[in-house]
Amino acid sequence: MPVFGIHPPELLQQVFENIGAGVAVIDAHQIVVFANRTALKLFGVSEVDRGRSFQELRQKYRFENSVGQEIGLADSVVMRALNGERVESQELRVGLPDGSTKWINVGAYPFSVAGLEGVLTIILDETSEVQLRRSVSQLQRMETLGSLAVGLTHDFNNILDTISLNAELAMQQVAEGKDCRPALEQISGAAKKAADLVQRLMRFSRAQGPRPQVLQMNNVIRDVLQILHPLFRKTISVRTDLWEELPTIEADRSQMEQVLINLIVNALDAMPGRGELKLSTMPGEPGKTLDSDPHRASVTIIVSDTGPGIPANLQSLIFEPFFTTKPPGKGTGLGLTTVHAIVEQNRGRIAVRSTPGAGTAFIISLPTSESSAVAA
User: Fold this and answer.
1) Which of 33, 63, 274, 349 is deepest in the core (most CB within 10 A)?
2) Spans of all domains in the chain
3) For 271-287, b where at least 16 C-beta lie within 10 A, e where not — what string?
4) How far, in Å, CA of 329 to CA of 96, rounded?
5) Distance of CA 248 to the CA centre of its chain
6) pTM of the prediction?
7) What is the pLDDT at residue 292?
8) Residue 366 above 90 pLDDT?
9) For position 2, what pLDDT does the model report?
10) Residue range 122-126: mean pLDDT, rounded
11) pLDDT tens digits along 14-55
């Protein structure tokens, strides 16, 4: 029966053409039977010939997940949905045949109607949002580096003092005919320490795409504590409780460093007087047995402080952009937003546990790398 003078198939097509998202229908035989104009424009094609297979069309493009790993045909949301798997939407980077790239969010939903079975695919163009998110992340990195500047100046002055004093000592020993190798070794050690510190800061500040690698988070935590050492006041106690033989994860190292640095700097700001900063790691997720979810082996990182805590009515807002409890001029409100985005990009979860007057803990769970999962 026509609706407003339009027959149902025509009405459905008009709806698909005007919803503002890419829509494609792939039947149970993996044939693309429909794609709206938004989807065609998104993938840079003028039309899709009826009867073309999804596999044939897809091989023209390169799909990567949010950390740069290529997504093969069998692991695509469409094929997984066609095989009866319930899948969540994914944020993907698409390499187009003309060499350009786009960020998209793709969801695939099985259906069976009027004798046709397959999946309905909805595609959203998120290129602008991802670029904005990366700009925000870089801005937040610069803010963090500003916080480190004073402490690092003190650290570099100590290194320069070591080099200067030992250089004078070496010159004096040479003039007196004495062995100056110990002084030269002190100079060499100080120079290496300075170079290492500069290299870490350059890596942290550099804007680049994610470069995933197998990481041992215990080592990342130790390196970050070295970078932030100048910020640790004498009134702050720093403790670590790192699980031996912690499973590895696969992520971009500079992103993981940024997450830890943001959380630690926030914890220090929350304890202007005395306090304790604690970093812990453990396999699995808190409150779950290690084998409770065999499809999601995880590593948990906890950053906690003994500050005043976060009021209950504000805890749901702390990951929102530009929200901050700091005084004006003391923060952009982008730190926790960046942390949340990085954790989600790496298929992780983050939660806050805080009681006013009893401190705050941020709990991050990240999936283990394939090598760790196989070993487990």
Assistant:
1) 63
2) 8-125, 130-375
3) beeebebbbbbbbbbee
4) 43
5) 16
6) 0.55
7) 45
8) yes
9) 39
10) 88
11) 666 767 788 888 888 888 888 888 888 888 877 765 567 888
Pull the structure tokens for residue 76: 């695509």
Token output for 344: 């989600």
Q: Residue 146: what pLDDT? A: 63
Beta strands per DSSP E along 226-356: 236-241, 249-252, 275-283, 298-305, 349-354
Enumerate long-range contacts of 185-192, CB under 8 Å, 24 or more apart.
186/162, 187/162, 187/163, 190/159, 190/162, 190/163, 190/166, 191/163
Q: How confident is the model at residue 326 (pLDDT cuts 50, 70, 90)?
A: low
Cα separation, 342 vs 346, in Å, equals: 6
In total, the chain counts a number of residues equal to 376
Residue with tokens 């604690």: 278
Q: Which amino acid, 257?
A: E
- pLDDT, residue 187, reads 86
CATH of 130-375, one of 3.30.565.10, 3.40.30.10, 3.40.50.410, 3.30.450.20: 3.30.565.10
- Two structure tokens written together for 22: 């890419």
Alpha-carbon distance of 36 to 20, in angstroms, equals: 10
Average pLDDT, the chain: 79
Fold of 8-125: Beta-Lactamase (3.30.450)
Distance of CA 375 to the CA centre of its chain: 24
How many Å apart are CA 45 and CA 55, to the nearest integer? 16
Q: 233-263 pLDDT, tens per residue?
A: 889 999 999 999 999 999 988 889 889 988 9
Q: Using the predicted structure, report yes or no on whether residue 70 has a pLDDT greater than 80.
A: yes
Q: How far is CA 40 from CA 22, 37, 77, 125, 149, in A?
A: 8, 5, 18, 12, 49
Q: What are 231-237's contacts with CB under 8 Å, separation 24+?
A: 231/147, 231/148, 231/151, 231/265, 231/268, 232/268, 232/277, 233/268, 235/273, 235/274, 235/275, 236/268, 236/271, 236/274, 236/275, 236/276, 236/277, 237/275, 237/276, 237/277
